[in-house]
Structures are given as structure tokens and as C-alpha cells.
Amino acid sequence: MMKPIRPVVAYLNMRRTPTEQAGPLKAALRAGVEVILIGDGVPAGLPTSLVTSQRKVASIFDTHDVLSVLATELARRPLAGVVTWSDAAVETVAAVGAAYGVPTASPSAAKICRDKALMRAALSERRADLCPRFARVSSWEETVAAAEGMAFPLILKPVAGSGSKGIYRAEDAAQLREAHEALTALVDPARDPIFTGHKDDLIVEEFLQGSEHSVEGVVQGGALTVFGVTDKRTTEPYRLEVGHVFPSQLPDAALASIHELVVEAVGAFGLDDSAFHLECMVGHDGKARLIECAARGAGDYIVSDLIGLATGESGATNVLRVALGEAPRTVPPTVVAGVRKVMAPRAGRFEELTGLDEVLRIPGVEKVVLERQRGATVRLPPEDFASVVIGAVIASAPTAVELEGILDTAIATLVPVIA
């Protein structure tokens, strides 16, 4: 008896850790699809019964190469959908969607959602009050000229960065100059492919004060579905995200302001048939203002773990549903879920993470994720914005207060040994 033919879905890139890879893989298993994985980095050990083909390309930004590889792998079979789980492939996904007629963000919307200056320009035309004052800059002279019309403190960051890379807060002109010099060295595709097409491309903007949050959802056929709002913990001065709690504990008025921002932003960007991860700041006046919006599901264990833990309905599964043209399903949260990152106290060589046994015995702890291998080099910002993260603790609890207590205890118990 012949096996039934499964629909084929293309995944363009995967998240870094096996824990985050598990969400999309389980979503594909539930959907009964076959996965073709194409990326500039292909993880080892993926189940070949599910991921039937893994093809590495020189650059996920090379749309022509990705389309050529995909055509070869499909071998005349129809493509049911295409998804990415990272920022780098957002525009390539849109190109694949346009070529094969499957649901994705449009190329124009994808371009906006990969460019923080275009985001602000599009939203400002519709609602200037929902953005900080900003300017796209490259040279130091352009940065000085733009700053003259703004009030310190200022933020200088890459137009096309992701993962909190290269976010500098400047209190005065001297710090702004230091930030510009550092970013001129950082924002180079030869150093990090995420900056492909955006060498020396920066944005300077007025600093937004308040609490930081993200909105997780999808748009399908013009209809907006919000799965929930996530509360964030960030560090100073580089705004590294070190913790998330889902769902948000904000009051109803602030949540209403966030929803208003999402509606306006999605409309301004022309975003449709796509997941989104919108980051915002809620000011002391209770008003939400845009930080950025990605045309993909959230990383940092939000889509892969937190939404599912809190609601029982997988965030990754809903992202895949929309890519397949199916309606998303929403379930209200019954518990609070969160993640807290284990940060290296200093630079050096990572030797071990002590306290694992004790933490895994703490009621409410769901997982401990190790993101660095033993012997890995650890560098601190601004030299490096990723290797400082050693691991993460994921937990759930009936209330946010209980959750924070569990995470506080876990982080205090876990000690990274840096030689």
C-alpha cells in the first residue's frame, strides 16, 4: 500500500537551539507536512522522516539561489507553504511566496519589516505620534546633523539588526560619537550577514522611556489575530533582552494602547498573511510607541515555548497554519509562562554551569537550556552581543508573582563558571 503524499513546506533557516527548533518541528508533525529545510546554517540531528531534505546555501539573502534550490528539491511537486523563524530570511520568504503563490507577506511589506527606518517612515505618515523622532544616517556628519533636531538621550542602532545587536544609548555628543565609531565597525555584512544590503546603515532616534513589551500574532486575509503581549526585561546600556513573561501583566488601558499601535502599524506596513512580532515601549503616559516589527514569529522561546505553556495552543503551530492558508486558533492563557537568561559575569572561556540538578527540582521549572558549549569563548557587549548568554530557564506558574519567584531562585542557583 502506497504511503499518502504529504504536503511540502519550506522552512528557510531555523532557530539556533534544539529547544527552539522543537516548536516548528512539532508544528510540522501535527500538520502532517513534509519539510524542506534551506538555510545558511543547517542544524545536525533533525528527524529525516519529517525534514526530508536539508540544503545549505551560501546566503539566505540570495533569493535566486534559494529559489533554484527549492525548485530542485520540489521536483515538480507543489509547494504548500513557506516559513522562516528568523529575521534574515523574511524578504526571501516573501519572494518564494510571490513565485509560488502561497501565503506570505508581500515583498514590499517584508522590505519594510526588515528596515527600521522604513517602518518608522510608513507609520509616521499614518500616525506620527506612535514613533519617536528619527533619522536614517550613515556618516558621522549625517548623524550630527540629525541629532541637532533631537533631544538627548538618543539611541543609535543598525537599521537592519536583530537580536539586540548594536543598540547604543548616548547621553551626549561624545557618547554618540563613540557609538557611531563602534557601529561603523559592526554594521558590515562581512562581519555579520544580518547586515546584508545595509552596510553602515544606521538609525538615530530619541530615547523612549517606559516598559518594553512585544506583541505576538498573525495577520490573515486582512484579519488581525493577537495571541498576547509579552513583558520584557532588558539590560542597560545595550538593551539586551534577558527575560520574558507571557501573558503581559499590564493594565487594560495600556494593553488597549498596544492594540491600537498594532492595528495602525500592520495597516501602515501593508502586512498580511504573515506572523508578526512587534516590539513597543509603553511610556509613563500609558501610551505605546513602536520600537520595531518583524514579519515572523518571535524568538527567545516565546513562540516555541511560552505561548504554548500559557495557553495550551502552540505558537509555532499557529504560525504554520497561517503559512498553509489555515485559520489560526486562539485559546486564552490559564497560567503565566516565562524565560530568564543566564548571563556570563565576565569574558573568558565557558567551563560549566553549576546548580543544574537543584534548579531542575524547583517546582514550576519546565526546562533549562544551555546555549554555549563547554570551552566556548565568551565576550561581553559591545565586543559581542550573543556569547554573553550562557543559557535560559523556562518556567510556568499560576501567577506572575509566583513565576518571578521561581525564575529569581533558578537564576540565583545557576552559576556559570568562566575561566
Summarize the structure.
It contains twelve helices and 19 strands. By secondary structure, it is an alpha+beta fold.
Characterization of the model:
The chain is of the alpha+beta class and 419 residues long. 32% of the residues lie in helices and 29% in strands. It has twelve helices and 19 strands. The longest helix is centred in the middle third of the chain and has 18 residues.
Q: Which geometry do the CA atoms define?
A: globular
Sheet-strand content, in percent, reads: 25-35%
Derived from helix and strand composition plus strand pairing, the structural class reads alpha+beta
Specify the biggest β-sheet.
8 strands, antiparallel
Oligomerization: single chain
The strands making up the biggest β-sheet line up spatially as 13-12-9-10-11-14-18-16
Q: Provide the helix percentage.
A: 25-40%
Number of strands: 19
- Mean pLDDT across residues: 95
Question: What's the topology here?
Answer:
Layout: E1 8-12, H1 18-31, E2 34-39, E3 51-56, H2 63-74, E4 79-84, H3 90-100, H4 107-112, H5 116-127, E5 134-137, H6 140-147, E6 154-158, E7 168-170, H7 173-186, E8 202-206, E9 211-220, E10 223-234, E11 241-246, H8 252-269, E12 274-282, E13 288-294, H9 302-311, H10 315-323, E14 336-343, E15 348-354, H11 356-360, E16 365-370, E17 377-378, E18 389-397, H12 400-413, E19 415-418
Parallel strand pairs: 1-2, 1-4, 2-3
Antiparallel strand pairs: 5-8, 6-7, 6-8, 9-10, 9-12, 10-11, 11-14, 12-13, 14-18, 15-17, 15-19, 16-18
Helix pairs in contact: 1-10, 5-8
